[in-house]
Amino acid sequence: MEEFYIDCDGIKLHAKIERPENSEKCPLCILIHGFTGHMEEEHIISVKDAMIDTGVAVLRVEMYGHGGSEGEFRKHTLYKWVTNALAVVEYAKKLDFVTELYLCGHSQGGLLTMLVGGMCPDELKGIIPMSPAWMIPDGARQGHILDMDFDPKHIPEVLDSWGLVLDGDYVRTAQTIHVEDEIARYEGPVLIVHGAADPVVPFAYVDKAVKLYKDAKLVLIEDADHCFGGKLNELADAVRSFFE
Ligand code: FER
Q1: What is the C-alpha separation between 225 and 119, in angstroms, rounded?
Q2: How far is CA 172 from the centre of its chain?
Q3: 136: Cβ below 6 Å to ligand 1?
């Protein structure tokens, strides 16, 4: 395991890379956490270990304002995360041991995975959105974010909810994001993993994504919540079967 930082326009992004044993060249999957998340969460570790098991190296990176990366949480936006992820794809492409590149992310990182998939279809051999938070842009347009209601035409200076503070720019930028466009731009294989008891991401969004992607498979894990608590083996099996 190697720990380091990837530069993104002067912001240091905290990263860890782990390679399977006995492999010179191998595929690599970039793995990204969700909103308020980080790279050591147990569902992220389970997915990482499952990938290593199947001979895939894993590059975990923490996005702007999260974990050990620079940037203030309240100033993070999906635009900043997209810019970060593009810098990570660029970094990973240049690693000489890498044969094929994949992208996987959880929740807000799953939404990010769908967006960046559409932006980098030639670079990404496959994508794995987990509990993908596609409802965020719609919520921003309708005036519901973090269980807070606001007038979407007059965005508040700050959102203050769930004990968290987010600048209004989070909403301003999220309102402009149209995930269908990026779904249409990605024609490679997609694995969506979702918990059937996820109270955060409505299943209707996952269902719509599976239908719109050209080549998507859904693994719906019964009784699993947003972070697959108590269902980590099922999560790992889904990821393993995608790479095997
Ligand atoms: C929201 C609902 C869910 C939201 C973010 C999330 C910022 C993200 C959840 C996650 O990444 O786990 O209203 O607003």
Answers
A1: 29
A2: 20
A3: yes
d(CA 113, CA 129): 6
Model confidence pLDDT, tens digit, residues 48-64: 999 999 999 999 999 99
Is the beta carbon of 118 within 6 A of some atom in ligand 1?
Answer: no
DSSP letters spanning 92-143 = HHT-TTEEEEEEEEETHHHHHHHHHHHH-TTTEEEEEEES--THHHHHHHHT
Count Cβ atoms within 10 A of the Cβ of residue 105 and give its class: 0-12 exposed, 13-18 middle, 19 or more buried.
buried
Q: What is the mean pLDDT of the chain?
A: 98
- 2-243 CATH choice from 1.20.210.10, 2.30.130.40, 3.30.70.100, 3.40.50.1820: 3.40.50.1820
For a pocket test of ligand 1, which of 32, 43, 144, 145 has the largest count of ligand atoms closer than 8 A to its C-beta?
Answer: 145
State the pTM of this model. Answer: 0.98
- What confidence tens digit (pLDDT) does each residue in 96-114 have? 999 999 999 999 999 999 9
Q: Where are the domains of the chain?
A: 2-243
Tell me: the pLDDT tens digits for 10-40? 999 999 999 999 889 999 999 999 999 999 9
Separate counts of helices (H) and strands (E) for the chain: 8, 12
